[in-house]
Amino acid sequence: MVIIKRINGQLANRLHFLSYFIANSKAYNYSLLVTCFPEYYNWFTPVGDEALRVTFTKTGVEQKALNKILNKLHALTLKFKIKLPGVTFHSITGNDLTLSQYDLNQPGFIKLAQQQVVIPEGWVYRDYVNFKKYLPQIKNLFSPKQEFRDAIEQEVNRARNMGDILIGVHIRRGDYIDFNGGKWFYSNEVYINKMRETEKLFSGKRCVFIICSQERLDANEFSDFKTVIAERPAIVDLYLLAECNYIFGPPSTFTGWASLYNTVPAYYMESADEKITINSFKEFFD
């Protein structure tokens, strides 16, 4: 059994991280308990009949108490350098420092997960093979609630009535002012230039840009384009991007989840000066 008690980051980070473990637990037939998703749990309504070996704790006293106990036990094992019978706090902090991905398919990890309680500590746990294999079931599990699906459908229909090709634009600033030295903290001018470049790729077609951002945007700044701009919940923005024909934005798990969810080609803006070509847009597993 594996217990996920902590994941750094917000919605998209958690969806990616959990999906690797969900796929791995399905492949190797061990149970998975997630105690760090309660604030997002009610945003989803699973669909389909496929059973996955995962349980989510809901918000409440029991969830908080369980996490508190697990954190306390972990602190005690570190302080006194002891091991708890049948429990392994599995840390990959060294991998995180070097961004060296830890393959969940390693026999040693699988044996632990099947025979003990394993509590992972770290970010770069990955299992791309089984993630891709079980993606349909994972998509069913993380299907947004009907109210969000209705809002997404409304926005998509509005955009399709305006043009031929839907281009999702993820304007990510906020924490990106400091993240990675501010390398991917782009001004509106940079995004507008990318939108112009993208339009040229589809000459003769009417491009509609669905713009998603955590901040309030002035639609007048994008008046040269056909756009759909609104303040929306994060989950609506995320799955709205997944309904586009193409997506671009700075490197992030947010754009990545939208890309893989509906196999939408995405372009990750590594620099402001890099020119977009049609080959810049790639599917998540390419």
* Rg result: 21 Å
Q: Output the number of helix runs.
A: 11
The total number of structural domains is 2
Percent range for β-strand residues? 15-25%
**How many beta-strand runs?**
12
Q: Based on CA inertia axes, which overall geometry fits? A: elongated
Strand order of the largest sheet: 10-9-8-11-12
Describe this structure in words.
The protein is of the alpha/beta class. It folds into two domains: 2-141; 146-280, Rossmann fold (3-Layer(aba) Sandwich), CATH 3.40.50. It has eleven helices and twelve strands. It has helices at residues 11-28, 38-41, 61-80, 93-98, 107-115, 128-133, 135-141, 146-160, 188-201, 234-241, 253-261; strands at residues 2-4, 32-34, 54-56, 87-91, 102-103, 117-121, 125-126, 165-171, 207-213, 226-229, 246-249, 266-268. It has a five-stranded parallel sheet, with helices on both faces. Strands 1-2-3 form a three-stranded parallel sheet, covered by helices on one side. It has a two-stranded parallel sheet with strand order 4-6. Helix 8 packs across helix 10. It comes from Mucilaginibacter ginsenosidivorax. InterPro entries: Glyco_trans_11 (IPR002516).
